[in-house]
């Protein structure tokens, strides 16, 4: 009687495993949590039993375990074999790896998300790689900083949480926010200063404000803050551009963005979203003081309705995704970079080159398309 | 939500592939809802449940596999760790000892093991637990066998 069924739970569990994945070598064995093959960059191991998991999966599980304890546990039982482990080995590339101690890292794991990790990792890459992605010069030259950036607070909060690895950073965030806003506003009254001068002044102020908290990473932080301000993007779009710039895969920080991207990609087959470069050329003649305008190629006037279609399609998307959006544009993910589509009704766009193309025959409101 | 769905889909495929590999367990997913499963398990041999077929209902939370599935017996069973009326199961791996490495299939195996090895010290069915705790194995076995015949075996004739 005892023989067949008398196995302990863990044994029957082991048996379950060996049955589910027969003859698979340990390297190709799927992650026991999501049961999917682990993407190469996601591979991580527990330090004692060396069972392999997706980094995302094991971190999630660690958070669940931590949330059940009143105090952050310093160790984690392997979900697979119940061995006690103290750290997660992650990002092994043959020569180096990262080691995250269960107790240290995940004591505040409730706030420290994948997005924080990604931001922290950004500080380990060479600065300046993203120089082209965001136009910092234009930001200063065109006094873009006069527009208030509503995402600055959330960006600062995440950034400082990532850098200080602390959850409660409100005081620091408000300090920085105050410094940034007051310094930017102050420029308002001294319009005569050269953009470079303003930029320097802004940087110096922020450096002073941030140094006591961020120490060695202060300089980089100031550059990053400037980049973010210059981008004029919201967090998700910014992350997306940033990661594309670094050639990183988006680790699914925000699945909503993916779905947005997906839904925008969907109709490409019928060329509704005809925002391919062949439809547009950059208006190079425009004075730097004006926004560069993407306009419809004169040589292809027939494409106009398609643009109108794509614009109305995008606006529909915008409405469904950002019903309360005050600013009249949405971000559009094209394979190469992020476009910001501004929705300017036809009469207002009159002065711009776009309207010279052809009179509208379709009843659709015409849109001016601004490239970011 | 997405991760749980993806994982359940993997399990579904695994179940389809391994069909018949374990004759004691038959897992079926609801036609329209991947978060609802039922399982038919055979009572383990040399126990009072031998010869019976028991139906289990799985309700899977959206946080699965970070949260355990909710499992209960649909078939009436006389067992110290199963609530006689609701079919609720008292099993550590379905509560605080849950690990995301368990699958629906392995949960079924664990339940079969629990049927063979009741834990009378944490009873959901006190009558059944008391019989075992007072050492009346024979009384427990005959009650359990009776309910297996009544509820878990196809009616003859």
TrEMBL record, chain A:
Q: What UniProt keywords apply to this chain's record, in alphabetical order?
A: Metal-binding, Zinc, Zinc-finger
Low complexity composition bias: which ranges?
18-30
Q: Where are the transmembrane segments?
A: none
Q: Where is the RING-type domain?
A: 31-82
What is the protein name stated in its UniProt record?
Uncharacterized protein LOC115743846
Tell me the organism: Rhodamnia argentea
Sequence segments annotated as region (Disordered):
1-30
Pfam families, per this entry? zf-C3HC4
Q: Name one GO molecular function term.
A: zinc ion binding
Among InterPro entries, the record links this protein to:
Znf_C3HC4_RING-type, Znf_RING, Znf_RING/FYVE/PHD, Znf_RING_CS
Q: Which PANTHER family match?
A: RING/U-BOX SUPERFAMILY PROTEIN (PTHR47692), ZINC FINGER RING-TYPE DOMAIN CONTAINING PROTEIN (PTHR47692:SF2)
From TrEMBL, chain B:
A Pfam entry, by short name: UQ_con
Which residues are catalytic?
Answer: 90
List, for all copies, the residue spans of the domain called UBC core.
Answer: 3-153
Q: Which domain of life is it from?
A: Eukaryota
Keywords recorded for this protein, A-Z: ATP-binding, Nucleotide-binding, Transferase, Ubl conjugation pathway
Which family, according to the similarity comment? Belongs to the ubiquitin-conjugating enzyme family.
What protein name does the entry list? Answer: Protein PEROXIN-4
What species was this sequence derived from? Rhodamnia argentea
């Amino acid at each position: 009687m005892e023989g067949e069924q008398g196995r302990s739970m863990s044994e029957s569990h082991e048996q379950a495993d060996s049955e589910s994945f027969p003859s698979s070598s340990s390297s190709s064995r799927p992650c026991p949590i999501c049961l999917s093959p682990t993407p190469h960059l996601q591979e991580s191991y527990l330090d004692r039993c060396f069972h392999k998991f997706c980094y995302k999966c094991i971190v999630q599980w660690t958070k669940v375990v931590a949330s059940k304890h009143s105090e952050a546990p310093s160790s984690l039982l392997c979900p697979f074999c119940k061995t006690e482990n103290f750290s997660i080995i992650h990002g092994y590339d043959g020569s180096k790896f990262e080691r995250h101690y269960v107790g240290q890292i995940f004591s505040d794991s409730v706030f420290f998300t994948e997005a924080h990790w990604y931001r922290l990792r950004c500080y380990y890459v060479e600065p300046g790689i993203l120089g082209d992605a965001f136009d910092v010069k234009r930001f200063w030259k065109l006094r873009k900083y006069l527009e208030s950036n509503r995402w600055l607070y959330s960006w600062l909060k995440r950034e400082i949480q990532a850098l200080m690895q602390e959850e409660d950073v409100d005081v620091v965030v408000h300090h920085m926010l105050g410094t940034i806003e007051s310094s930017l506003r102050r420029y308002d009254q001294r319009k005569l200063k050269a953009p470079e001068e303003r930029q320097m002044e802004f940087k110096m102020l922020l450096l002073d404000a941030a140094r006591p908290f961020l120490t060695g990473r202060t300089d980089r932080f100031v550059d990053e803050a400037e980049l973010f301000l210059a981008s004029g993007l919201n967090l998700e779009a910014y992350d997306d551009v940033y990661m594309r710039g670094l050639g990183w895969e988006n680790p699914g920080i925000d699945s909503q963005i993916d779905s947005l991207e997906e839904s925008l990609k969907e109709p490409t087959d019928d060329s509704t979203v005809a925002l391919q470069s062949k439809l547009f050329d950059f208006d190079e003649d425009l004075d730097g003081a004006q926004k560069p305008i993407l306009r419809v190629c004169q040589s292809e006037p027939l494409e106009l309705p398609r643009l109108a279609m794509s614009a109305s399609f995008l606006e529909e998307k915008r409405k469904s995704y950002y019903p309360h959006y005050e600013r009249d544009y949405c971000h559009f993910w094209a394979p190469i970079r992020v476009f910001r589509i501004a929705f300017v009704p036809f009469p207002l766009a009159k002065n711009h080159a776009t309207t010279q193309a052809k009179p509208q025959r379709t009843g659709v409101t015409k849109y001016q398309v601004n490239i970011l | 939500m997405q991760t749980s769905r993806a994982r359940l889909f993997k399990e579904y495929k695994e179940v389809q592939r391994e069909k018949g590999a374990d004759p004691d367990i038959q897992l079926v997913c609801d036609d329209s809802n991947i978060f609802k499963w039922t399982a038919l398990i055979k009572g383990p041999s040399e126990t009072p449940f031998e010869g019976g077929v028991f139906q289990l209902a799985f309700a899977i939370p959206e946080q699965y596999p970070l949260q355990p599935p909710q499992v209960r017996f649909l078939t009436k069973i006389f067992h110290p760790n199963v609530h006689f009326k609701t079919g609720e199961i008292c099993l550590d791996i379905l509560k605080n000892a849950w690990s995301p490495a368990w699958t629906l299939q392995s949960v079924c195996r664990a339940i079969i093991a629990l049927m063979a090895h009741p834990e009378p010290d944490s009873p959901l069915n006190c009558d059944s637990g008391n019989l075992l705790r007072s050492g009346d194995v024979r009384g427990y076995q005959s009650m359990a066998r009776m309910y297996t015949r009544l509820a878990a075996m196809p009616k003859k004739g």
